[in-house]
Structures are given as structure tokens and as C-alpha cells.
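Annex B. Sample input.
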Amino acid sequence: MTFSRPAHWILLLSSLWLGPWAAAAPQSLFDVYLQAKQNDPQLAAAGHGNLAAQELIEQAKAGYRPNVALSASTTANHTDLKYNTANVPLPAGVNRFEGYAAKVEARQPIYRKENLERIDLSKVQVSVTDKQLHLTQQQLMLRTTQAYFDVLQAQDRIELLAAQKQAIQQQLQQAKASFEAGITTVTDLHEAQARYDLIVAQEIAAENEQAVAQHSLQAIIGNPPQTLAKVRDDLQITPALKPMQDWQTVTAASNLNIQIQQAQIEISDRNISIAQSGHYPTLDAVASYTDSHYNGSQNRFGTDLQNAVIGVELNVPIYLGGAVDSRIRQAAYNKQKAQDDLENVHRQTMLETQRAYLGLSSSIAQIKALEQALQSSQSQLDATKLGYEVGIRTSVDLLNARQQHFSAKRDLLQARYNYLVSIIRLKTASGIINEADLQDIDQQLTKR
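Annex B, continued. Sample output.
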């Protein structure tokens, strides 16, 4: 085949202009997740919170480092001195003089139990924020997965409704023609019209659901979602799951919510030790140097002073009004609260694992059942079409068969999405989710 010169240039320019769009592959789940890692505000907030928490250790260590302070002052004085008795050998009257003073003081803590405990406390607090950051990353994987498949599910619903609408519209036109020819009754016409109107209303609702799903995904990734890779028709289903007890054992050992709450109990123990340190003495090494100069005084004598001091300072608390004992009791109650919170978190986490496990098991069974139901509904639809053509089935029978067939398609697609999301949900609940799991999900998606 040969092309004229103008046609050749048109094809070339068209390929250059459409090339980037034509070659662009649909975004996979992992592609979308990488965008979420860059743009999700929840993950960004957790990251900055973690950086802020890292400073707690340095702040705690500062309590055992030397403190050096410089103070200085300058003064101008005006005095008017009068004596109430006679024969005072010192001069009276108005006197003006100026002066300055400067002091450098250094203090090195030698023993402060509270400061030592605060160093240990800060390390536990930092470990908590590390776990919280990791937990936020895990939750981002689940949120992204859920939002991704919500968009696909909304798109599928619109496509199914469009196909169903087209089929019903054709049947409606046939019903109108048959009614006008006197072959069928007005009942068939009204039934087809009612089904058509219902589909139109469902389309409006589906378009709204799609917009909400797209905005939800955009809130995570920061940009409007592009074309998303769909689930393959030959979806690979896990043949069998490990027993629920095995998943619960993994959850107890790996779930970050449980680990965070366990760390809160350790923090409570540190706070008890900090409160108890109020009964302990403190010992500091202190040194100071003072330099002052005044060109006069009330007695008209000027002074120059240089003074150096070095020593140790011991402070032994004897009675502080009961505040220390009160803080100890408060810290002990807070530990009991942390233990109760741990039990609550443990139960809720186990419940979430059970729900995720049952959800995954249910979706596996549903997929198998709905695949069979789809085949059966297709056979029923084919038989009903044939019966309608030969006059032994009514228009209502055909409408019902179409409805059942499209419902089976919709339910099967939803079960497939639920299956993939449930995999991520179960691994998130058990605390073992990682990016490789999202890449495994990508293997179940179309590449074009």
C-alpha cells in the first residue's frame, strides 16, 4: 500500500501527537501506591512527627551535660545620704557613681536520678513514634488498595448498567412495535418502560458513586487518578487459607497497635521511676567567676572585685508537701490504665483479624459460587430469549432473566474486588503487610 505525500505527513504527525497517550499503560495498584507515598498528607504528618520525636533523646541527654550561663549588669547610682545623729565620721550629701558586674557560672550534674530515667524514657518514646510511622505506612497500603478497587468497582457498575440499559432499550423498542402491531398487550410495554426508567435512575446513582470513589483516591494520591489496570479475567484464587488460629498468633506477635500499647506500659514504668526520683538527692559540681567594678559607693569608696568559686552542691529532699508521693500514685494509676488499654487493643485487633479472615474466606467461596451462578444465569437468559422468540415466554420473563444475569455479573465482580482487598486487609490486621504484597496484587491485574 502506498500513501500520498500529504497523507504520509498526516499519519506521522498523528502518531507523534497521540504517541504518549496511545503508549501509556494503565496504572497498577503499586504505581498508585508510589504516588500515595509521595503525596499522602497522613503519611507526611507521621513522618514529620517522627522527626520531631527523635529530638527527645537529645533533650533528655542535655539534662546530664554541663550548663554554662553568663550574666552581666551595669548601673548608674544617685544617692543623697543624711545622718540622723551627729559626729558621724563618714561624709554625707549627694553622691553619684557607676559600676558594672559580670559573672560566669558552670554547673555539671554528677548524680540526678530523674535525668537518667528521662533518657531511658525518651528512647522508649522514640521507639513508639517509629512504630506509629510504620503503622501509618501499613494503613496507607490498605487505604490505597481499598480506594483503588472502589474506583474500578464503580466503573464496572456503570459499564454493566450501560449494557443492561442498551439491552432493555432494544426490548422496549420491540415492545412498542409489537404493541402498535397488536401482537402484545400494553402491560409488556409498561413493564419494559419501567425497567428502562429504573436503569436510568441507577445510572445517575452509579455516576455519583464513581465521582466519590475517584475523589477519595485523589485525596490519597494528590492527583486525579488516571486509567487504572483492571482485574484479570483469569483471577488466581488461593486454594486454602491457613487456620485462623495461625493468623491470630501472627497478629499477637506482629501487630503494631499491640506493640505500641505494650510500649505505653513501659513508658508508664519509666514515669513511675521518674516520680520516685523525687525522693533521691541530687549532686552537682559548680564553678563561678565574678568580676565587678564600681567607681564609688554610698560611703564614697570605689571597689574592684574578682571572685572565683568551685565546689559541689548536694540537695537532699526532706519534705515537699506530699507532692512526690502523689505523683508516684498518679503514675501507678496511669500504668494500670495502660494495661487496660492494652487488653482492649488486643481484643479489638484480634476481632479485626477474625473479620478480615472471615471476609477473605467468604469472598473465596462467593467467587466460586457466583462463577457458577453467572454460567447458570447465562443459560437461563439464552433459554428465555429463545422461549420469547417462539412465544412461550413473556417480555417480563425476558426482563427478569436479563436482570438476574447482570446482577450475577455485578456480584461476581464485587466478590473479586473484595477478595483482593481482603488479602491486604488480613495482612494489615496481622501486621505483616509490605510493599511486595501490593506487587503480588499487580500480578492479578491486566497489563494493558
